[in-house]
Amino acid sequence: MDKSASPERPAAAARAGGESPVFTTRDPNTAAFWDERFRQGFVPWDQTGVPAAFAAFAARTTPRPVLIPGCGSAYEAGWLARAGWKLIYTDVPTEYFRGLEDQRKVSDFMFSLGLNVSMREYAQIVEVLWAGPAYSAGLTVGTVIIAVNGMEYRPERLRQAIINAHNSHTPIELIVKNLDRYRTVRIPYFDGLKYPRLERIEHAEDRLAAITKPRT
Question: Pick from 105, 94, 118: which is nearest to 194 by CA?
């Protein structure tokens, strides 16, 4: 056995020797696919820093909710913190967030249950977050939510169900329809409503304001 190779980073050691990493999983729709690549240090999508497009976006916009997907090293979170801001979650959406919901015509539960529900195709799931609570419960895009905890689906009822689950630690029960089949799904999510927003870090210099300041 080559003792110079770390057991946590075997792929890195293999590449150093001119060999390619070996994987046993091939389906990117499974958690095992991504877990194996992270364990072996094989992350070719990692840009090793804040993408130029993100920095350029921050330079031309005002502070607003930011989603940093959990599939990288969160360089953006550190960059924002150094700029005097941190990403937090509250149970009340910002006006900007509400505006996005209205613009996109969706009820956005992406930061809690990990799904978005269409306002056009009433009660139809249009987005599902990979490895989120809805995904883990087997919900997919195109599924229609018929009822929430025994009552006809409405966005406000699903929001209230999330609050109730947080308080009672009781799974949310949905009746859903996919094509011509109905089934009951229980989602054991208890962390309550979550909406992102940027918050100033006390006593830290606000470099983001300096970046977004109009130049004359």
Answer: 94
Q: How many CB atoms lie under 10 A from the CB of residue 31?
A: 12
Residue 192's nearest CA partner among 156, 157, 167 is 167
The 3-state secondary structure of 87-147, one letter per residue: EEEECCCCHHHHHHHHHHCEEEECCCCCEEEECCCCCEEEEECCCCHHHHCCCCCCCEEEE
How far is 55 from 177, CA to CA, in rounded Å? 42
Confidence of residue 8 (pLDDT cuts 50, 70, 90): very low
Please state, in angstroms and rounded to a whole number, the distance separating the CA atoms of residues 176 and 181.
8
Tens-place pLDDT, residues 164-201: 999 999 999 999 999 999 999 999 999 999 998 877 66
* Token pair belonging to 91: 């149970």
CATH superfamily of 99-187: PDZ domain (2.30.42.10)
Query: In Å, what is the CA distance from 12 to each residue of 46, 71, 72, 74, 107?
Result: 14, 19, 17, 21, 43
- Show me where the domains of the chain are located: 1-44, 52-91+198-212, 99-187
